[in-house]
User: Fold this.
Amino acid sequence: MTSIDRRPAPGNVRGLNGLRANSLSVVVILLIEFGLGISVNLFAKLPASDHGKAMLPAFGGAVTGGPVVLGLHAILGTFLLAGGIAAFVRAILIRRPLLTGLTSVALLSIVVAWISGTRFVGSTDNGASLSMALAAVVSILCYVLILFLVAKVGEEGQ
Assistant:
């Protein structure tokens, strides 16, 4: 029996349910992001003016001057950072080391994907695109594991 299998203290019920909802929403957004990223890679023409830009200017260019699908991809990626941080904070407050570890790896993967995405905008490097995709897959895997490990807990702790 793992620590996840034990009946949670009443104070942790809301935290576990919140982490579960947070994880599901992040997985859905990650899957949308994956589809948008494939679309950008296959069909969008990135402006030549973005080539060689550093990380933050490349992000700004993607949001304001790139194709609509690229701007949407960049903005949703930034929302994912907020969702990943929220899940990590929830896991810390729940005080379950496994959940904290999974959310930290997932958050790190989102950060890697975000940085790789800005690198891709500035360079259109295939390695940056692959890194972004692989980091997204790692993050999806972590959140799916969280969903599997955290059973739906009722308000009474059942």
Observations:
- Residues 10-149 form one domain.
- The radius of gyration is 18 Å.
- Helices lie at 10-43, 55-64, 68-94, 97-123, 126-149.
